[in-house]
Amino acid sequence: MLEIIHDQFGTIGSILVALGSFTLLILWVAAMSGIYEYPYSDRRKFLTISVFILFPPYAFYWLLKDIIRQYRILKGRI
């Protein structure tokens, strides 16, 4: 698999692909762990984590929405 990626993207490209994939994985895990911060019911947490696993782009959307929410709290706009 690494040889195929290297053949397709070259050395610099394969490093960037690996770095991007790693970053997306870290953000996905951060979104899943971030859901436990909120006082949701266990059922809602389970459903949200299930959606995160089955539809990974939703985790990135939720994380972005949470970052904006926390920014507004810090700026006193809520």
What can you see in these coordinates?
The mean pLDDT is 88. The protein has one domain (2-75). It has helices spanning 2-34, 42-54, 56-75. With 78 residues, the protein is mainly alpha-helical. It is elongated.
Largest sheet descriptor: none
Beta content comes to under 5%
Overall number of structural domains: 1
User: So how many helices?
Assistant: 3
Separation of the first and last Cα atoms: 48 Å
* Silhouette: elongated
Mean pLDDT rating: 88
Query: Would you tell me the structural class of the helices and strands?
Result: mainly alpha
Rg estimate, integer Å: 17 Å
Low-confidence segments: none
The SSE string, one letter per element, is HHH
Q: What is the β-strand count? A: 0
**Helix residue percentage:** over 70%
Helix and strand arrangement:
Blueprint: H1 2-34, H2 42-54, H3 56-75
Helix pairs in contact: 1-3, 2-3
